[in-house]
Automatic annotation (TrEMBL), chains A, B:
<keyword id="KW-0238">DNA-binding</keyword>
<keyword id="KW-0804">Transcription</keyword>
<keyword id="KW-0805">Transcription regulation</keyword>
<dbReference type="Pfam" id="PF00356">
    <property type="entry name" value="LacI"/>
</dbReference>
<dbReference type="InterPro" id="IPR028082">
    <property type="entry name" value="Peripla_BP_I"/>
</dbReference>
<dbReference type="Pfam" id="PF13377">
    <property type="entry name" value="Peripla_BP_3"/>
</dbReference>
<dbReference type="GO" id="GO:0003700">
    <property type="term" value="F:DNA-binding transcription factor activity"/>
</dbReference>
<dbReference type="InterPro" id="IPR010982">
    <property type="entry name" value="Lambda_DNA-bd_dom_sf"/>
</dbReference>
<dbReference type="InterPro" id="IPR000843">
    <property type="entry name" value="HTH_LacI"/>
</dbReference>
<dbReference type="GO" id="GO:0000976">
    <property type="term" value="F:transcription cis-regulatory region binding"/>
</dbReference>
<feature type="domain" description="HTH lacI-type">
    <location>
        <begin position="12"/>
        <end position="66"/>
    </location>
</feature>
<protein>
    <submittedName>
        <fullName>LacI family DNA-binding transcriptional regulator</fullName>
    </submittedName>
</protein>
<dbReference type="InterPro" id="IPR046335">
    <property type="entry name" value="LacI/GalR-like_sensor"/>
</dbReference>
Length: 351, 351
DNA sequence: TTGTAAGCGTTATCAT
DNA sequence: ATGATAACGCTTACAA
């Protein structure tokens, strides 16, 4: 690593600051971490010297000596997925200005990678940890339970938190979407699902429950794939659905990308939305409101989820008691024109 | 942090393994890092003991003793932006299986935050660093030049790499897009730009150069905003543009989100694409190919960019010489129906 | 309120 | 090929 730029002046350490001020190293350390334990005069002189010399603590030395870091670990299954981007935004926004650093791990929907990263992260003795989902492997759960830092599971909620949880019931959210479609007069309501991760499966369960309740469940209306969801896939799944049966008058898409794809494909096939066909997405991405027509979706509070997760962590780090270890952030059906209801005269798509 | 689960058995350290095998700690350390320096018999016994005891090195102790970590730092301005998600995917894919860990920093398009994170990251003595863009502040550049690890600037290319670069010329890419529109018969070509980060500005320069060259530059056709780009903003910018002048027959959007918004707004206004109005985006997101009509865009090799950046880092870490410190990944105009050309009869939009 | 001494777990250096 | 010893820079525990 030879660069033409001269090396930095030798790195300033605690001892250098201590010497400059004429106190011991531990006093400088205290000024930095627990200033209230140090007399004002000393504190001021130390603070001044720290600034003047440009001292900054070595995180590795700190971690080694204190068995603690200022890292908040965050494990998510995808960096590409909009849903997690939003959560991350909430996390980064909330942590700004706090003395913590986010360490992001990308599990890529792989159980093994999640276990590996959990291992890597925990070994660094983070101040807190955020993990996605509630369906960790047995090994992951064991690691989490042994961790000596607060942990928040996000995205979903359930009965058996490793420590804390903040999320929503995807089953209920999907169920509510189906009831919305039903209330608007749609009957033959299909389910399009991609990726089929635990949350998608929960939504499918919610769909099936409600469809069964209202006596409309038909397996042919359920089209799923393990492939990652994309707009293109939305088109393809609609085509697959219509090839199975033309007796469909609405579709609940497991997420908004699929819904946009379905919309484009409907436009191409001159299927009128919502007159002949209703479309409901999930997540309520920004673009849903300005599509043509605007698309109904299920709003989830993803930024809020990230924010709350951080707040729960820092509360626990500060030793505050947590009244609610499991926080349900709920959801909201954002009804737009795409599910305004079938055309009065005849509730059947044109071929 | 009181949990009901019993604490882990006391953490195994180097000395424990050494004792179990009957060698010294440093020998165990060597087996882990430079096995070729240790005799086979000892190596085998040590390896066995490491596995049996479940020993794993403490990263903080390692970092403190060796002044080096296995961290590859990555600084990006946004976790929400599709462009960076793709780059990240390339990075994570390429680094999989290698003995490095990605540490992600989110600068949120803030110079100050970039400087702060650079500071935080460099203090951890990473094995390598990837930073976004080539327009770092003077202070950031100074920090980078003093770093004693390899560094890759990604997204753009320029004359003065801090160390290495991999990206493309956004000016040329935008210029090529404009020439494409011109070749298809469009004349009154507008520019819609959001965020106005350095790359967006480069694209604007490319647009202006080519428009001037072909004698078509008209300031009224340039609509920009500092707001982050969204599909909604695409609609709004088109509305703003049309309120300034109806003498427009095509639009180059600074990115695909804007282009999708423009498309939806055109659909609403019954502006026929491409007959009355051409649309070209930038980045070639997956959805462009299946929009209605499919939208022309400029493909950039974002995953490849991430991959190459990692490869350049590990080559340098391995001490290999770099033949090309600045890698131009180029771009490609992906022509689709949205720029098929104006309707033969009359090259004017309907009101 | 401040300081002393003893690690924290690993690796660099120098011996053997 | 292997080992003894001294860092690495900080914090904990205890003392004064």
């Amino acid at each position: 690593m030879d660069r033409e730029i001269p090396k930095l002046a030798k790195k300033i350490k605690l001892a250098d600051v201590a010497e400059a001020v004429g106190v011991s190293a531990i006093t400088v350390s205290r000024v930095l971490r627990k200033p209230e334990l140090v007399s004002e005069s000393v504190r001021l002189r130390v603070t001044e010297a720290v600034a003047r010399l440009g001292y900054v603590p070595d995180p590795a030395a700190r971690a080694l000596a204190s068995a603690r870091t200022d890292v908040l670990g965050v494990l998510i299954p995808s960096v590409t997925n909009n849903v997690f981007s939003s959560v991350l935004r909430g996390i980064y926004n909330r942590v700004e200005g706090l003395p913590f650093n986010i360490q992001l791990g990308n599990t890529r929907y792989s159980v093994l990678e999640e276990e590996r990263l959990l291992d890597v992260f925990l070994r660094q003795r983070p101040s807190g940890l955020i993990v996605s989902g509630i369906d960790q492997s047995a090994r992951s759960k064991a690691l989490l339970r042994q961790a000596d830092c607060p942990i928040v599971q996000i995205m979903e909620i359930g009965d058996d938190p490793v420590d804390m949880m903040v999320g929503l019931s995807h089953r209920d959210a999907a169920g509510a979407a189906i009831r919305h479609l039903q209330a608007r007069g749609y009957r033959r309501i299909a389910f399009l699902g991609a990726r089929m991760d635990p949350r998608t499966r929960s939504r499918l369960v919610g769909y099936e429950q409600v469809m069964k309740e209202i006596g409309l469940l038909d397996e042919r209306l359920i089209v799923t794939t393990p492939r990652a969801s994309t707009v293109t896939l939305g088109c393809e799944l609609l085509i697959e659905l219509l090839s199975r049966t033309t007796e469909v008058d609405a579709v609940f898409c497991n997420n908004d990308d699929l819904a946009i794809g379905v919309l484009f494909e409907c436009q191409r096939r001159r299927i009128s939305v919502p007159d002949d066909f209703g479309i409901c997405g999930f997540n309520d991405l920004e673009m849903m409101a300005v599509a043509n027509p605007p698309l109904t979706s299920v709003r989830t509070n993803r930024e809020e989820m990230g924010r709350r997760a951080i707040e729960m962590l820092i509360a626990r780090i500060a030793g505050e008691p947590i009244d609610e270890p499991v926080v349900d952030l709920g959801f909201e059906i954002v009804a737009r024109h795409s599910t305004a209801g079938l055309r009065p005269r005849e509730a059947r798509r044109r071929p």
